[in-house]
């Protein structure tokens, strides 16, 4: 146990003792075992600066211990209580109000109660020179404080754990720390990290009693700048134990900087020699400067002597900005400002912004907080600027740093200039060496005594060939090389050498024989090499082999003679004029072309010969503008007075004057040929247009009857009751589909010829394709008692990928021809795979018949457009002559070819190949039957206006739309359609508009309806027999919304209705349903994008493809009424419906014929065209084949202007009509009641 005095337990010191301690300047504090303050006298309170009530009850560790020592002090106090041992006296720093620290010397002891420790008393006083915070010092302490604060060196006093107890004024000013900051820092926080370990090691040695004579270290200021210090340290011991240390340190930063500056200065000087190139030099300069100054943001900009160009040769920046790689024109940047001023500048951000406001400079990029910039000067010449800058701290640099930068900049300028000169010299040397060693020139130098001084490899090679050894420097050429020359050549060389040695440049040519005895011509130059003072010691020699030039010169002379011969035999006219336009040269061919002798035209103005005087100024203007004239057509006067067409090519004269030269070619015959070709081209284009119009008309006329046929098939499909009937309807549908598909492509021949026919490949089953072909043609074959079969070889893949429609079209053409030209026997299709490459097969389709056969001479004509082998008036077989041509092109489109094997009278084998990949069954597209595609009813009954001038088409269309659940109104023409559509409360949801109608066509009617209804106009869909590819687009561009081609099917109408008439969401009442606005789904979906999308664009592939129906042209012959059409009408609406249609048709045609009588009498046959068009379409729809055929024939004749037999043709039309009227009542009865027949 310690012998420290013990006071009564936790009792405050008696007042006389407390008063005595106050009078003695002693501080007294009583703590309990937790370290809480129980009592403190006035001296202690005065020292810490707190009132008594602020202190009592507070934890002494939290209130009076420096923050970085609290945990350690608390552990020491707890250990002291636990072990009941304590140091009798010690020095401890005390934290007082304001954050100051006072060092107090304490004496301590325990207080006890019942023998147990109840607290600790502490009596303390201030040791000399220990306080940093005591506001008043007296006596010697005051003088010592003043002495230390006025000292220039840095004085510090540290506790044993390296906390700051005292620092003088110079210490704080130099490093920038406040007392409050020092209260929370230790020595380790202030010393530079690089020097920390060394300094703490020296302190430990000092505490251990080892002498430390000198301390050299680096402290960091509060802004992070290093301060280099040197000095001494001592230790303060009490009772033999180190309690603190003192140090006096001297600032040697300037000396260190000076040493580093000098070292950097010399290093930069050496860099000019050691750096391999300028970029390496710039980087090395940057590294050297970073040793003495902050260089995080540094740039070097170089200018030319005229100060017109600036180049940022090197720049490193924390906020990089784009700078051009090369030189850029001088501007108003800060670099140009420094160069123009010629003085170093220390620029703060305020200075920078003031220069910007004054318009002195323009800011580029981020403005720095501070910048140091110095011109790079070599004497009075400025080559650029060196600058450093800082974006974050305005105190990053001092004005003294500017002096350092300026001092270094001169050496930097010298280093850059030297390195630039070295690189320039290196480039120049390399360039000269390249010139010296490259090319074919022989180069050498000699001194004035003809001693060889230098030479290139060409000279060495020549010397070796001439003398058998390599040359060496210093040999005398007169005694070596020249000694072996023939005497005449040697004397010539010596003469010119001696002249050059007198300072006279020489050039001469010399002929020598080479080692093979061939003559070699050399062009030689001898020139003195003058030094800077005008003297010379060496002569340069350059020799060039001009043998080829000499040979060329001789060849040129021969060519000139040859040219003269050609010139005189020239068929075109060659001419040349002077600047006044007078002919100076003209070839003798002017005699043959224009009839003049050359002497007659020389010296005369060229304008005398132009038929059109304005052509000559035009030609001259073209030559002046473009430097030449090409293919200028004009006419020249022949001497006999008639014009000659010529083609002129001319240019500025090559002789150097301001005249022209050129060639004029007689193109009279060529021009005549071009005129003939142009006429032929116009005729061909006219024929093509006629063909296109013919195809369009044919399509329109064929589709009008097809509309009734296919429409009836759709309606018939909805009335079948037995599987047998369903099979018949499906077969009929497939046949009509194939028929119309083929018809579409035949009529669209222009699409094939333009290369616009697209292949749509899908997986298919070959047997299914064969079955379709068989179903299409079996009836026709059986009618002729022909056995029609097909066979697929075993090694042929079952499933392939190709265009089924195009394949069917080729097969249909070939099979149709085979049946057509076979009167008895067989027609067979054989399908085989003739080659394979992986999954790719080459399939061969062969159509073999036992028909009439073809001769070998005619076989080559089969596959061309509109070609028929029998063109006689009595030919037995009809046709367009298009089928095989289309088949050839389709076969090529499918990756194959087509051909025929036949002998006349022995039958034929038409074959074609296609390329197709093998497929699997699961690849086949799902194709539900038509009956499976159930038409979903509309939520609201669509109100439809059907516009068509044909009564039959009206009834078919009305019945089809009614079957789809529509309420249909019919208009017979454009004016009636306008009246119905614009009537109040019309409320049509969609309008189906025929295009070709009398009085007003569908386009004009649509425009009129839109003009009245505006935005409330319902969708208008073109429903027409026009079927060419461009028809749909043309109707869309003319204001219609969609397109459906005739013949029309139920599913086509449903698709159009479904596109445009989709009810709005939600359940509506019956009243609301009647007025529900129906909008197209595509418009609803596109509404989010605010883009108007026409549903016609969704089927832009064309209605011809969407309708993919085909037909084969069948002659009407003398068949008055097609009972198959009649049966469809009866099935559609019953016998009464069919009879009503025919009666209305009878009445309509009778009226038309009566109206036509006076027109026929007046022979005004073109006026009958509208009537014939209407009659043709309606008769076709009703199955009046002979009547429709005659109407079509008359329409075609009248359009072509062939009206001579018009009256007779019309009588035949009336004859067919009479037969039709007499036959249809019994036909209707017969079809309606087949059991009664």
Automatic annotation (TrEMBL):
Residues 943-1061 form the Response regulatory domain. Residues 1134-1237 form the HPt domain. The modification 4-aspartylphosphate is found at residue 994. The modification Phosphohistidine is found at residue 1173. It is found in: Cell membrane. CDD domains: HATPase_EvgS-ArcB-TorS-like, HisKA, PAS, REC_hyHK_CKI1_RcsC-like. Its EC number is 2.7.13.3. One of its GO terms (cellular component) is plasma membrane. GO terms for molecular function: ATP binding; phosphorelay sensor kinase activity. Residues 697-918 form the Histidine kinase domain. This is histidine kinase. It comes from Hymenobacter glacialis.
């Amino acid at each position: 146990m310690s012998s420290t005095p013990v006071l009564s337990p936790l009792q405050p010191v008696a007042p006389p003792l407390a008063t005595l301690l106050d009078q003695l300047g002693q501080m007294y504090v009583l703590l309990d075992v937790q370290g809480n303050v129980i009592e403190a006298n006035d001296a202690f309170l005065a020292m810490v600066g707190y009132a008594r009530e602020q202190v009592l009850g507070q934890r002494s560790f939290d209130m009076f211990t420096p923050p970085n020592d609290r945990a350690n002090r608390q552990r020491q106090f707890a250990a002291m209580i636990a072990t009941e041992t304590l140091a009798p006296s010690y020095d401890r720093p005390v934290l007082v109000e304001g954050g100051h620290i006072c060092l107090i010397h304490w004496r301590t002891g325990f207080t006890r109660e019942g023998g147990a420790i109840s607290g600790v008393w502490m009596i303390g006083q201030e040791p000399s020179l220990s306080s940093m915070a005591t506001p008043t010092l007296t006596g010697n302490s005051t003088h010592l404080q003043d002495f230390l604060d006025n000292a220039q060196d840095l004085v510090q006093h540290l506790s044993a754990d390296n906390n700051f107890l005292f620092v003088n004024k110079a210490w704080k000013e130099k490093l920038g720390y406040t007392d409050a900051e020092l209260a929370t820092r230790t020595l380790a926080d202030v010393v530079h990290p690089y020097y920390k370990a060394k300094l703490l090691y020296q302190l430990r040695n000092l505490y251990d009693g080892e002498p430390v004579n000198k301390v050299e270290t680096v402290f960091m200021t509060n802004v992070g700048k290093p301060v280099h210090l040197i000095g001494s340290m001592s230790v303060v011991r009490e009772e033999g134990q180190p309690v603190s240390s003192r140090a006096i340190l001297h600032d040697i930063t300037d000396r260190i900087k000076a040493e580093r500056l000098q070292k950097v200065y010399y290093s930069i000087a050496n860099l000019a020699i050691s750096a391999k190139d300028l970029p390496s030099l710039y980087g090395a300069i940057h590294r050297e400067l970073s040793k003495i100054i902050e260089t995080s943001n540094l740039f070097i900009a170089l200018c030319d002597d005229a100060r017109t160009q600036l180049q940022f040769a090197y720049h490193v920046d924390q906020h990089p900005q784009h700078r051009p790689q090369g030189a850029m024109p001088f501007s108003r940047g800060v670099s140009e400002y420094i160069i123009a001023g010629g003085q170093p500048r220390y620029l703060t951000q305020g200075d920078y912004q003031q220069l910007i406001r004054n318009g002195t400079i323009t800011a580029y990029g981020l403005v720095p907080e501070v910048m140091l910039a110095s011109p790079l000067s070599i004497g009075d010449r400025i080559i650029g600027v060196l600058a450093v800058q800082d974006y974050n701290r305005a105190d990053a640099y001092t004005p003294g740093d500017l002096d350092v930068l300026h001092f270094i900049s001169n050496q930097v300028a010298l280093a850059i200039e030297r390195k630039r000169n070295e690189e320039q010299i290196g480039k120049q040397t390399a360039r000269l060496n390249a010139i010296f060693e490259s090319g074919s020139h022989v180069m050498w130098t000699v001194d004035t005594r003809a001693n060889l001084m230098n030479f290139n490899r060409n000279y060495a090679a020549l010397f070796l060939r001439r003398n058998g050894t390599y040359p060496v420097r210093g040999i005398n050429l007169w005694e070596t090389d020249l000694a072996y020359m023939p005497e005449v050549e040697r004397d010539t060389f010596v003469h010119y050498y001696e002249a050059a040695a007198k300072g006279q440049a020489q050039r001469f040519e010399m002929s020598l024989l080479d080692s093979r005895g061939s003559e070699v011509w050399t062009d030689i130059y001898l020139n003195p090499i003058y030094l800077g003072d005008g003297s010379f010691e060496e002569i340069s020699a350059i020799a060039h082999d001009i043998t080829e030039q000499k040979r060329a010169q001789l060849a040129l002379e021969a060519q000139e003679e040859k040219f003269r011969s050609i010139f005189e035999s020239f068929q075109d006219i060659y001419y040349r004029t002077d600047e006044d336009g007078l002919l100076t040269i003209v070839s003798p061919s002017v005699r043959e072309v224009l009839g003049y002798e050359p002497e007659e035209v020389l010296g005369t103005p060229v304008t005398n010969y132009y038929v059109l005087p304005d052509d000559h100024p035009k030609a001259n203007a073209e030559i002046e503008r473009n430097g030449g004239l090409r293919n200028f057509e004009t006419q020249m006067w022949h001497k006999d007075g008639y014009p000659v067409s010529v083609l002129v090519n001319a240019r500025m004269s090559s002789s150097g004057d301001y005249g022209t030269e050129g060639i004029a070619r007689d193109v009279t015959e060529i021009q005549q040929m071009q005129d003939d070709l142009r006429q032929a081209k116009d005729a061909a284009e006219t024929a093509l247009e006629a063909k296109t119009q013919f195809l369009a008309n044919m399509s329109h006329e064929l589709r009008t009857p097809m509309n009734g046929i296919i429409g009836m098939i759709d309606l018939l499909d909805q009335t079948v009751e037995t599987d047998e009937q369903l099979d018949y309807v499906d077969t009929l549908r497939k046949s009509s589909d194939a028929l119309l598909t083929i018809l579409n492509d035949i009529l669209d021949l222009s699409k094939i010829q333009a290369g616009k026919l697209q292949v749509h490949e899908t997986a298919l089953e070959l047997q299914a394709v064969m079955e379709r072909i068989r179903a299409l043609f079996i009836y026709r074959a059986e009618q002729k008692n022909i056995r029609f079969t097909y066979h697929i070889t075993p090694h042929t893949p079952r499933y392939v990928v190709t265009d089924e429609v195009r394949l069917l079209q080729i097969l249909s053409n070939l099979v149709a021809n085979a049946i057509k030209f076979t009167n008895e026997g067989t027609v067979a299709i054989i399908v085989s795979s003739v080659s394979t490459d992986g999954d790719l097969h080459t399939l061969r389709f062969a159509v073999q018949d036992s028909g009439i056969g073809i001769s070998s001479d005619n076989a080559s004509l089969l596959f061309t457009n509109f070609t028929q082998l029998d063109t006689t008036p009595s030919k037995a077989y009809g046709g367009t002559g298009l089928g095989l041509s289309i088949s050839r092109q389709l076969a090529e489109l499918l990756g194959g070819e087509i051909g025929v094997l036949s002998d006349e009278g022995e039958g034929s084998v038409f074959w074609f190949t296609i390329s197709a990949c093998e497929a699997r069954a699961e690849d086949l597209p799902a194709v539900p039957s038509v009956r499976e595609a159930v038409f979903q009813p509309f939520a609201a009954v669509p109100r439809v206006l059907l516009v068509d001038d044909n009564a039959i088409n009206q009834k078919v269309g009305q019945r089809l739309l009614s079957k789809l659940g529509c309420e249909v109104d019919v208009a017979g023409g454009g004016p009636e359609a306008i009246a119905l559509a614009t009537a109040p409360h019309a409320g049509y949801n969609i309008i189906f508009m025929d295009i070709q109608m009398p009085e007003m066509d569908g386009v004009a009617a649509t425009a009129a309806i839109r003009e009245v209804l505006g935005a409330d106009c319902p969708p208008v869909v073109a429903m027409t027999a026009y079927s060419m590819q461009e028809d749909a687009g043309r109707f869309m561009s003319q204001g219609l919304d969609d397109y459906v081609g005739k013949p029309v099917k139920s599913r086509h109408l449903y698709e159009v209705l479904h596109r445009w008439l989709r009810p709005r969401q939600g359940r509506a009442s019956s009243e609301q349903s009647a007025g529900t606005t129906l909008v197209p789904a595509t418009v609803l979906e596109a509404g989010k994008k605010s883009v108007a999308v026409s549903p016609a664009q969704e089927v832009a592939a064309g209605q011809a493809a969407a309708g993919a129906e085909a037909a084969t042209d069948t002659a009407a012959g003398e068949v008055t009424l097609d009972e198959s059409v009649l049966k469809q009408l009866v099935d559609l609406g019953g016998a009464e419906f069919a009879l009503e249609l025919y009666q209305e048709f009878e009445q309509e045609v009778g009226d038309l014929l009566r109206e036509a009588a006076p027109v026929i009498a007046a022979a005004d046959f073109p006026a009958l065209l509208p009537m014939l068009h209407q009659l043709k379409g309606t008769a076709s729809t009703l199955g009046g084949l002979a009547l429709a055929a005659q109407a079509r024939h008359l329409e075609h004749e009248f359009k072509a202007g062939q009206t001579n037999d018009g009256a007779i043709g019309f009588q035949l039309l009336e004859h067919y009509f009479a037969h039709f009227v007499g036959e249809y009542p019994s036909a209707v009865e017969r079809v309606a009641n087949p059991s009664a027949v």
